[in-house]
Every structure is written in C-alpha cells, then in structure tokens.
Model the fold of this input.
Amino acid sequence: MAKRHPSFVCQECGAVYNRWKGKCEACGGWNTIVEEDGAASPMAGPAATRPSRAKGRVFPLEGLSGEIKEAPRTPSGIAELDRVTGGGFVRGSIILLGGDPGIGKSTLLMQASAALANRGQRVAYISGEEAVAQVRLRAERLGLGQAPVELASETNVEDIVATLSQGRPPALAIIDSIQTMWTETVESAPGTVTQVRGSAQALIRFAKTTGTAVILVGHVTKDGQIAGPRVVEHMVDAVVSFEGDTGHHFRILRAVKNRFGPTDEIGVFEMSDLGLREVPNPSELFLAGRDMATPGTAVFAGMEGTRPLLVEIQALVAPTSLGTPRRAVVGWDQSRLSMVLAVLEAHGGLKLGMHDVYLNVAGGLRITEPAADLAAAAALVSSLSGNPLPPDTVYFGEMGLSGAIRPVAQEQARLKEAAKLGFSSAVGPAPRVDKAKNGKAERLPLATSAIGHITDLVAGIAARRRKVS
Done:
C-alpha cells in the first residue's frame, strides 16, 4: 500500500503545497495554510469503493434542438427574488448565496421555501448549523409554521443525498450552510477547502441527475467575499450576494454570477418584525425624509439592471487644519471619488486641497456605475459653495478625465422614473442623436439641461447662487 503524504491547503484560495508556509503565494493570505489528508482529489476514497473500469462508457450525444418536457423555471413566489434569479429557479441549478452574519439569509430562504411549498411543490430545508426546534421557532416567528416544508438537521452529504432521493425529487433543496457539510470520501475536517469542494461536488451531481434546484448558503470573510475556495463559485450556476447595513432596514439581493439570467439585477427588501418585505418601488423609500434645503445633496438617477433607481447622494466639504485632508466615502468607490475631486480641481477651478471631503449614499445602497459622477460632483460643488441644489432636479452622467460629460445608457428609463416621482427637470449629458430619425435627438420625458463639460455644472451652480442672493 502506497504511503499517503499530507498536503497543505490554503483555506482562502485552495492552493496546495507540499509543506507548510506562513504566506500563501497564490492569494497572499497569511496563516491560511492548513494541513489536510487526501487533499489532492476531493473524489478520492478507498480503492474498494471506487468502480474499476478498463475503458470508458459510451453515452449518447444529443443536439441543441429538441422537446423540453419540463418547465425551465420554477417561480419562487417572491417577485424580488425571481427578478434576481432571472424569473425563478432553473431545474437542476445550483445557487450559492452569501452574506454577512445576521443579514437575513436564512429568513429569506425560509420565506421562499414556504411560498414554494404552499403551492404544492416538495421543498427540503437542511440545516447544518441549527437544530430542528430552532428552525421551527424562526418559522413560527415569521408566521410560516404551517407551511409543508420538509425539515432536517444533518451535515453528512451522503445521508442528505440518500434521504432526498426517496420519493419524488424535491423542487428546491436548501443547504444551510455548505461550510458545515462533510463527505466520507474526504479525510479532513468540515469547513476546510477540501471538504467544501467535495461536498459541493456531491450536491451538484445530485442536482444535475434529479432536476432539483439546490441553494447553498455560504459564509463570508471580513472583506465580504464568500469563504472557502473560489473554485466552488466556478462550479455553481449562480452566485447571489445578500447585502445591507445593519444600521439600515434595507437589504439588497444582487446576482454576482448567473448562467441562466442577468447579473446586473437587484432585489430590494425591507427588514420588518415579520421577516423580509418586498419593496416594489425602492426609489420612493430611498428618497423618503430627505432635506431639500440643505447644501450638498443631489438626487442621482441610476440604473440597476433593468430597474431605474433614484437615490440621494450627500456630500460634506469642510475646511481642515491637518496637513493631509481626509477623504471618506460610504456606498461609492473611493478611487472614483478621488478622480472626481481631481477633475474638479484641474478643470472646474475649485480648491479642495485644504478641505475634508465626506461622501455618502443615503439608504445603505452601494453604487457601482460611473453615471453617478455628475451627481457626486454636483453635491460636492453645492457643499463647497453652500448653495442648495434645486429639489426637483436629478443628475446623471459620466465624467472623463478631461472634464467632459459623456452619455450614459438607458437615459429614457432614468427620466421616466424621475418624472413618475414628481421631478420636473434633469441635468445630464447631451441626448444622443437617433440616426434612424434623420439625425434628430431623442424626445425626453423631462426637461433636460444638457452640459458638455464640468465647467458648465460649476458655472450653473454659481449663477444660481448669485440669483438666490
């Protein structure tokens, strides 16, 4: 019998070494390498349990065209969840759901499983972290105690697969969480890279052969990344992140990867005493309670996938006596703020070198699209000048390093959402020329002040200040 040599595996990225190291050369993590046995292959096991075949088995090949016997998707019954997944759960798909502790992952999955089970579908909820009585207490608190959801507390993957294979295949199986699962084919502790990878592979094989949609709950690290090897994110069909700030009652469900739908859609929920409540019109809630007479606030007309979203951007520019002024931002990219400040100084004629700058996206939302450049710049200029912006105006537009304001996508949808919420004007880039209409510009639903350079924005705010005074 060949002698087995232990392997040393990084718990962050899954890199394998033949000896222990303090720092992983692949991801740069310190003290993340742990000794494991049998880490070379997650499918390794005793030789007697592995089938022995002299040659491969011939299997039939089929074409892309053909009859689809089953419905491609199973709606969950929660509209915001279906929006993110692309219309529902695809049969045989694997979804990896990550989020901070206490953000509401188990609550969302309990509500989704109850809604699906109440429509006659078989749903199984497997908890590896809580006892059955604890899960029942949460279901009673949410008012879902009577839902016909099959519940169990188990961590052995082979036992889970054997149990779920009895009777008709479940429409949905929830594994909470994948870090607590372990498989007999791997000789290492639960939660290690090898166990997580081996357990995920076994559950993926079960989903593909039975048509059951499986949701794997994953823990996250301190920087918001899903813990465990990144190879699991490549193995699954969709990776969904549940975001939110514990200081706010809004929760954002965002698709990071989706093989069967878009990856730029978001679902908005509001945490209440009875669980998560869907927010069909998040713009109205994000703008609720804003102070219209305060300098440094601008309303940004943004897009999240196909959904237009209006959100307030707040800025504070204050003089400082420190040698190095502070630059703090919440809900936006730090490097993006630095670029906007540099453009305002170089091309807008503003002196911000002796001022602290604070920028915040109200409501706990995180903005990633570059169309927020103009709204952030307007809020910064307004705060520096002490002049409030018009309360009935929205801002959007991408800013170049030369100070030019560039057009953005889906301008019509942004303006329609602003008009629906009572805004009467917009400030943005010049509308695009429609070649199909003899070179005429698009007809916009709102009166739009087109600006081509950042100096136009600064001059407009300065002119408004003189008019008000």
